[in-house]
Every structure is written in structure tokens, then in C-alpha cells.
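Hi R.,

Here's the chain you asked about this morning:
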Amino acid sequence: MIRFLGKLPRKCVVAFSGGVDSVAVADFLIRGKREVHLAFFNHGTQTSRDAEGFVRNFAKRREVSISVGHISREKAKEESQEEFWRNERYRFLDAYDFPVVTAHHLDDAAETWIFNSFHGNPRVIPYRRGNVIRPFLITRKDALKDWCIQRNLDWMEDESNSDTSYMRNYIRHEVVPRALEVNPGIHTVIMKKYLQEASGLTS
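And here is the predicted structure, written out as C-alpha cells:
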């Protein structure tokens, strides 16, 4: 079941990669009669170029508008590749006047908490970052995938998600399974934290 925090805006931008998470969120909002605009960021990779075609076809089929962002600068020496791409994506998303909804989910939140703990700052993904909101932080990834399967929705698989040379993927594929052996309730603990804060959320 897809659950969300706060109130979903009637008009919003969806950060849309074409992956299963963003496809589920976009479809959920469209079926909920929200006015949706898709925002796709092309990272300049072959995967992104392939995904852009999928995303444009999705927008055409669903009769929603779409805009595409691109890399605007060279990567700084002190930035990792992941940081560079993230910074450029948010530069693109921060330019919108309407709320930007991302498809971050509870599994992302657990991974982020573990990642930040390794760096001495155990914190979860915030609900809001400027104009960007993350309403689906209490929904598990499996629920988003089930949404797509049950409605026969197609999505793109990003092959780089299995590349454990990226820290985020290493934590997802190697660290999280071991952490769950120690504490199987990590996701429940993090979800309760979000729910405790939910009463103060506004859109």
C-alpha cells in the first residue's frame, strides 16, 4: 500500500527518472487527479539518454507536460560522481515555482541513515528541502513496485544501480542486508520517526 506524509499538492512537479519508484509516484498522483508536470534530468550517460526516450513517451501517453534538465558544468575535484550528479539535479529542481515531489521511499531513508551514521551524523532524509518535498518516505520500495505490476506499468531499469563501486549501491546491496540481520526492525523505527513528525507537516 502506498502511504504518504502531509498533504499532496493539487499541482506539482514530479522528479521523474523513469525508474519504478518515480513511475509509481507519477501514476499515483495522476490517478489522484493531481495536475502533474514531469521533470527529468539527463546525466549525460547512455542510460540517461535511453531513459529520456522512455520518459517522453510516458508523458505523451499520459498527456502530461515534461521538461528535461542537463549537466551545466564540469565536476569539481572535491565532488564524488554521486555528489556531482545530485548537486546538478537539485539545481534543476530548485528552479521550479511549484512543489517538486520526489519518489524517495522508506528503503532510501534507511540507506541514508546508515550512510550518514558511518560519517558520524545519523540522520534520515528530511521531508522538505526548499521547494522539494518527499511525501512517500513511509512507503516501502516493494509497495511502489507492486503498484506498477498490478497496473501493468512499464519502467526503466538503471544498470548502474547494481554497481557497488558507488557508495550508495554498496550500502544498499552489501550493508543493509547485514544490518537487517542485526536489527530487522530498522524500517519500522525510521517510519515511526517520520510519523511522529508528520503532525507538523504542511504543503
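One quick note: The mean pLDDT is 91.

Cheers,
M.
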